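hiii so um. not sure if this is the right channel but i have a protein structure encoded as tokens and i wanna go backwards to a sequence. like what aa goes where. can anyone help
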């Protein structure tokens, strides 16, 4: 079965074609035939963040080219020929939320058009469920991957970390989960962006902070670990961001007109990153112990952070818990993860016609038990 995935929830226009072998359910082999991403990062960098209307216009401009390129690469890797007037997939999966409304609408409209034009079933996918399924993918260069054995990984704990989300999700199976912890204010990725702006490191903040922190001393400044001692598994990053703001104000009073030099910025970046990651790892490991999970899965844009990967790998090894993280190419928003999530969600969605898919920019992450 071939699935076309479409992702336009923010500032990446992405399409992917995957093929899932006709083996028994939950034991299939996934082959990523193409994974094309057109990023708008450079375009939005000068604004310090994503501008929704501008993102939508770029999606409109790029989406047809990305579609053609995804099909061309899939045909080459899958060794099949394109036929005029035909779309060689069995299902179309598109992100329907959460995300930026104008951006989502571009992808959904394109998906509906393809579904109607080529008479293909269409299913809408929750963007966060897509990130969860990124752990079931292998790089295109090593295109084949077998789905994780449910007996070996469930119950599992999935840490979703991105610019808009910070959640701990307990998974009893691939499609049965519940949120046991989430941010009460800023998401961790949002905090990275805001601190990077305070340090004049540019956008996006995650990679900028991580790169700058490599040259700094993580123990130079003692920053708070909000809610690290709370009995629940919720997170808070607003206070940590504010602590960095006050630290800068104390070191460099506005009236003085001075700015932090490279060394100071590196030390602050390292200290901030250390505090932010520390809370994530602490709470994840504590939850894993309480719920007696077999494995921990990492997903979302911040899953690309080297320190986070290193610390989770170290702590899970010490605790004897299996640990899975997506390949780097699937940490950012991509359509391969949407295609996989669409494949598994279609069995739950009775309606797969193009009229049934509705955009929801504020789509929640509903517990499924």
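sure thing!! here u go:
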């Amino acid at each position: 079965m071939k699935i076309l995935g479409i992702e336009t929830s923010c500032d990446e226009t992405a399409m992917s074609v995957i093929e899932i072998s006709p083996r028994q359910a939950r034991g299939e082999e996934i082959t990523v035939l193409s994974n094309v991403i057109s990023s708008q990062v450079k375009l939005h960098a000068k604004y310090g963040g994503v501008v929704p209307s501008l993102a939508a216009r770029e999606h409109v401009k790029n989406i047809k080219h990305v579609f053609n390129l995804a099909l061309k690469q899939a045909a080459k890797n899958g060794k099949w020929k394109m036929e005029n007037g035909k779309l060689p997939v069995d299902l179309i999966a598109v992100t329907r939320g959460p995300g930026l409304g104008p951006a989502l609408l571009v992808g959904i409209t394109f998906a509906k058009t393809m579904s109607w034009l080529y008479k293909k079933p269409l299913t809408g996918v929750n963007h966060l469920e897509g990130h969860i399924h990124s752990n079931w993918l292998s790089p295109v260069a090593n295109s084949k991957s077998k789905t994780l054995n449910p007996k070996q990984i469930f119950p599992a704990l999935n840490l979703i970390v991105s610019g808009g989300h910070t959640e701990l999700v307990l998974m009893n199976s691939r499609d049965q989960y519940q949120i046991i912890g989430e941010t009460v204010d800023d998401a961790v990725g949002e905090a990275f962006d805001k601190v990077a702006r305070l340090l004049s490191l540019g956008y996006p903040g995650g990679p900028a902070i991580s790169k700058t922190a490599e040259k700094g001393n993580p123990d130079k400044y003692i920053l708070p670990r909000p809610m690290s001692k709370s009995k629940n598994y919720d997170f808070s990053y607003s206070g940590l961001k504010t602590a960095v703001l006050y630290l800068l104000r104390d070191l460099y009073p506005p009236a003085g007109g001075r700015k932090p030099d490279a060394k100071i910025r590196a030390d602050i970046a390292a200290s901030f990153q250390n505090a932010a990651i520390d809370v994530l790892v602490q709470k994840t490991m504590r939850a894993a112990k309480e719920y007696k999970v077999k494995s921990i899965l990492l997903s979302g844009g911040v899953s690309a952070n080297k320190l986070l990967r290193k610390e989770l790998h170290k702590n899970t090894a010490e605790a004897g818990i299996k640990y899975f993280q997506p390949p780097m190419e699937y940490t950012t928003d991509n359509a391969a993860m949407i295609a996989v999530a669409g494949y598994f969600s279609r069995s739950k969605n009775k309606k797969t016609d193009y009229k049934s898919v509705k955009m929801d920019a504020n789509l929640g992450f509903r517990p499924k038990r």
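oh and The chain has a mean pLDDT of 90.
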